[in-house]
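Supplementary Text 2. Reproducibility record for the structural model of the 512-residue chain.

All settings were left at their defaults, and a single model was retained for analysis rather than an ensemble. We include the record here because the model underlies the residue-level annotations in Supplementary Table 4.
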Amino acid sequence: MRAIRAIGLLGAAFGALALAAAPARAAGGLDQIKTIVILYAENRSFDALYGDFPGARGLADLAPAQFEQRDRDGTLLARLPPIWRGLTGKHVVPPIPQEKTEGLPNAPFAIDDPKGFNLPLSIETRDLVHRFYQNQMQIDGGKNDRFAAYSDAGGLVMGHYDGSKLPLWPIAKDYVLADNFFMGAFGGSFLNHFELICACAPIYPHADESPAKDQISAINPDGVSLKLAADSPASALDGPPKFAKDRALTPDFYAVNTMQPPYQPSANPPQPGGEPALADRHAATTLPPQTETTIGDLLDDKNIAWAWYAGGWGAALSGKDTKDSQALVFHHQPFNYFKFLAPGTPARAAHLRDAGLAGELFIKDIDAGALPPVTFYKPPANLDEHPGYADVLAGDKHLFDLVGHLQKSPQWPHMVVIITYDENGGFWDHVAPPKGDRFGPGTRVPTLIVSPFARRGRVDHTLYDTTSILRLITRRFGLPELAGLKARDAAMAKAGEPKLGDLTGALDLSGN
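Retained model, structure tokens:
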């Protein structure tokens, strides 16, 4: 496959032009779609933002058994734990400290309730733990009743917002909101970005004989929960849990929590005296280059152009992006972990693009009608909605503005835009994820499908997860099926779960 990559890259631009110029079939069909755009935000569960959306499976009329949280021993909590270290992010003045969050009822609560904390969408909260094993422990086999028990943020897991104040709320009402869309993998951003591009989990071969040998987690025989430390508080009301060894790797060496790219930009600098384009391979958290097949490989093999636009990519490469004003989050750049996109390769130059510090270069390509047929966009950190360093409103407004540009683009008549979140960010959601394979699906996240082909003004209840985006790309462009998609299908079928959709349930491609 990789032997023909150079030929594929040379033909990609011509393939893109031919695809854009090809007329849609009069009878309709998938070939009417010329451009698929994925806008990938951060760390919000469905209930946290869209729990009050009309017609969606949200927070209305939930019975106590659907939301009440239980302690680590399984007993019902009399109240929610305090929000450890306080509700607000570290830069918020004045803060809402921990002591003002004590005694919360064991139920969901509105963070922006004027009669409560009254913290608007424009103010960031503190971050919440969102890791591979913790997410499974919180889901608790589908009961979703241990979110408070296994969070480092206590009761904050049950917080949500009045989503009707979101700029994207009217877009969701006008187009399609998917209310049965789950994050592809348990845990955090790192692993879910891999789900988005390859439906795979990265691996660290022979990690036990490597600098990463101390990155192997200590888990229980059930394979899905971490061993508690001897001094872990017995009750969630007494403090956050402590674990014996909560690290990045599984015992069989899959990287499921954040590790750093082997190539710059990376949080791990180059080895002293070594190649400046590489991260120090001796650092315990540097992941070796990955070789699993990605959706990018498959698109290249068919001469179909694609790009990953990242906010702050150029600034990070040039050294202008500092730690204090970081726009690029290194572990949110999944293609930077793969060998075929190593520094100096033609593929890297063709596919990894700078979106600008505020998405302005991405917008320039939108307005010019120059997006490739498959386009991913990762917002800069201050606009990605991640708790702890970003607020919801600024990021949502940014996405809303992008939709406005996309709707005016010359490519809009044949475009499908997918707006989704990489993972739940540690926030609770009441809907049980479907049973899949060992890596996911995880908690439910909001997803909007915005397109001239959208079945306008409806909530789509079809079962989806992050890999459904890959399924749409695969089906539209006639690509081979990634191994991870087959594995998930087989696991879900074995568990008696419905088949995951490919997002066409949100579209009307009849050509009428």
